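Hi Q.,

Before the meeting this afternoon, I wanted you to have the alpha-D-galactopyranose prediction in hand. No need to reply - just skim if you have a minute. The sequence and ligand are here:
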Amino acid sequence: MLNGILKAAAAVAAAAGIGYAIKGNRIDPAAAAARTVNAAKVTTKSQTAYDNGVALTPPMGWSSWNTFRNKINEELILEIANAMAKSGLADAGYQYVNLDDCWQSSQRDENDRFIADYEAFPRGIKPLVEDINKLGLKVGIYSSNGTHTCEDLPASLGYEAIDAATFAEWGIEYFKYDFCHSKPIPTSAPYIEKLIISTNDGTEIASFNAKDATLEGHARLASDSKHPEEYIVGLSSNIGSATFSGINVEEDGNYVITLIIRKKGLFYKYARVEVNGDTEYDLYAAPTKASTSDGRLQLTIRLNKGENSVKFYNPFASRMDAAACQYIRMGRELRKATKEYAEKNGTEEKPICYSICEWGFNRPWNWGKEAGNLWRTTLDITATWPSIISIYEQNVRLARHAGPGGWNDPDMLEVGNGELSMDENIAHFSVWCMMAAPLILGNDIRRFIDENGNAKTDDPILQILTNKDLIAIDQDKLGVQCRRHKTNLKVDVLVKPLENNELAICFFNKFGEEACESVSISELLATDYCDLPVADKYVCTDLWSKEEFIAIDTIGATIAPHSVKVYRIKVKEG
Ligand code: GLA
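Predicted structure with the ligand bound:
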């Protein structure tokens, strides 16, 4: 009866009321969900910091989104890379040229791999990467943790392994993973009535009823008038588990499990299937529209010769846990893909800086460090003062979560965009540097070079973006995001400890009138974010005007509207 099950998995699933279908290479939610089922093997046991060796200081680069949106093509990207190399931006530390949304075609190839837009990137991405690498720069790419991107193009949910391998092969070194069209892993679990183990030629090996399982937590047996056979409930939201033991097979290999479930409810369900306490698989059940009360879910698992056990549970107590799991999974695929590509080709591994972009919806600062290298903390920035202030207010509170290898990301820079005044541009850049934010430029940097390819060093926006003293604050190896030491609601005083017992102080005037503020070093010394040694005198350098002065204790400033004063402070020797 089970003959041919693997070959006809999608058809069987549909017939069984599972409700998933694969439709050619057109990407639709059902197809993506089906692939998630088929590519089911996962391992999420021990979770540690992502630790892929990159982003030890906040990443620096450029992204196509803020200025060019859906209008990107190969010529533009090469011009941008050229401008980055020749304008002085690359020398200042900017290294990633990132393609945001809209680089991809709306179809995948016959092997389900991404294809670049045929018109905009006719050579594909790999040759473009090679050209940009020759300029000493790296390339980033974009997808979404959903069925489609925010511009409704194909995305990576269910294609994580294929897409990670494709990016590794193309030589990509930065990957932004968005949250549009996401499909959270359900926190509900299916109701299990029976478990059947077969070989994949359909020979039944063992069969268990609900009452044969060892139930833990809140798992229990239930039945109802429409369905007198007992089934297991209470496996949802990480509150219970059901384990079937004593599954004997004669040799190591792949076997099919058929789970007979009690169909109920217009919502997706999910079970983690843990085999012998280590290998884990995903199993999804669709919302039921069926008129019959039982359905079947099938999954190929690997069993060992002798006795085996299979445990069913749903580890996700909340949508937050489920989102974290999906982002962690993509990160693992990226790491695996770059390693495997390097091993196979005898080349040096190119790790991918992994940028999580779920807008702070699932508190990524709590799990981002084990998932990737940076995580967006807010919705999208725009080139307006209120947007910059709003994002700053959300991000500044998250200081304790940032550090080398894992950064809060208050979104890409809008310096040079919109109607921002020079003071606002300077303040935006300064505050991002104080917050140890990734410095991903969002303006048209082609304006920074002339027809002969020479840097226009007198361009005021270029001067802001290449202020090496501010970049040094952002890139300081201690990797500490500034603390908001105090605020009078108009002026915030930000303090960022630096290497070698130095300190950056920023007076940030958020309001539309000139203001005065001061801070005393003795007050700062009493905090846990100031490593300045006790001394008689301190040298303070204004990082925009470059003026130096000596402070005994109090440092004061008059700050223009929507403006900053930033000082680097160290002990005066001698
Ligand atoms: C979301 C992200 C943006 C950008 C767009 C692309 O809005 O937050 O940064 O990547 O998608 O569509």
